[in-house]
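Subject: DNA repair protein RadA structure
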Amino acid sequence: MPAKNRNARPGFRCAECGHEVAKWVGRCPGCQQWGTVEEAGAARPELAKVVAAAPSTPARPIAEVDLDSARAVSTGIAELDRVLGGGIVPGAVALLAGDPGVGKSTLLLEVAHRWAEGRSPGPSLYVTGEESAGQVRLRAERTDSVHPELFLGAESDLSAVLGQVDAVKPGLLIVDSVQTVQSPDADGSPGGVTQVRAVTTALVALAKERGLPVVLVGHVTKDGAVAGPRVLEHLVDVVLHFEGDRHSTLRMLRGVKNRFGPADEIGCFEQRDDGINEVPDPSGLFLNRQESPVEGTAVTVMVEGKRPLLAEVQALVTATQMTMPRRAVSGLDSARVSMMLAVLEKHARIRLSDQEVFAATVGGTKLTEPAADLSVALALASSRMDRALPGNLVAIGEVGLAGEVRRVSGIGRRLAEAARLGFERALVPPDPGPLPKGIEATVVPDMRSALRVLSEQRD
């Protein structure tokens, strides 16, 4: 009796890392991802020898390749163009991900409207699989995004989406969202690993074949990562994250991957009742300029991507009768705030262990980089000593546990932005490098040197 072929039995394979198991499991033993193990069927046949075929286009010297077909086209929104590296490249596929309700659809509807107004190189096609055409029209009326060259389709079948492209022949295609579109040639339900991979692969092939720029909306998990298989981010050319706090109007578009431009750039937007508007100079959103200096406030310069932005730190230190004083932090790294409290108490002899401490940022921004340490420490000391810092002062530097002030990157760019906004003095760590004109920089090697600014202030 012939032996059974063990390789013919069905198996299961992880869609993320390719790890194979004999039976289905909910969590892949290889990459520890949930819900990625799928039935692989019979074992794959042995690889046959590949026969050479005639190339579709002959190879040419790189200097003779035409660049006109690959030049970026402006989307009409300067902040989006900034993140994309000048615009969207024909044939590129961009994936825009973000939390529910952050404004992804509203932003892309505005992109489609601006593209339609330009009327080059063709109309824009907005395909929605999550809402009806009437619901999208209502949003377009509210945001004043109605245009005769903006076409709208409500489809959830991939074949129907491709049919819409053939009928409209757009210059820009927006699909909202990739998790709601289903391919008839793939198994599984919409949003599943197999379906998302099949739909994305088809749309990428369409974009490359016709030179059509495509923007896909993607869902995110509770951890903030793009939902679906990891291969989704590898298939597309650009990955963008749209971020924002529900309690703030500020929205940030962050580039995570970009094959045609910088991958660490950000764009700033503000969500209003009439839609999402770009903010070319967002530093004013993070500052609360007072007519006279106020105790417990300090200004620093953070860097988001390559963009320097001024931010204000506020602190309130007050006495308490509680055995365990409260520590409340908003917009800052609570661990670093605790470190600054310990440094001030140890090296500056400022008693804080019996005080309640509240620290926050202005405008809902998140300030977590070490360059904000010096401003946080000065704001805490200012509130405790009831002495205000000068209103024209910024503080930049990382503070170590020994009380030393360490150098951070991009000090020159940070100070240039501060000088542009009218600040005249700065506290910087040793060896800051070339400094711009228009601002007086004072080198502070340690925390005690920085606190002399407060000692100089009159009660």
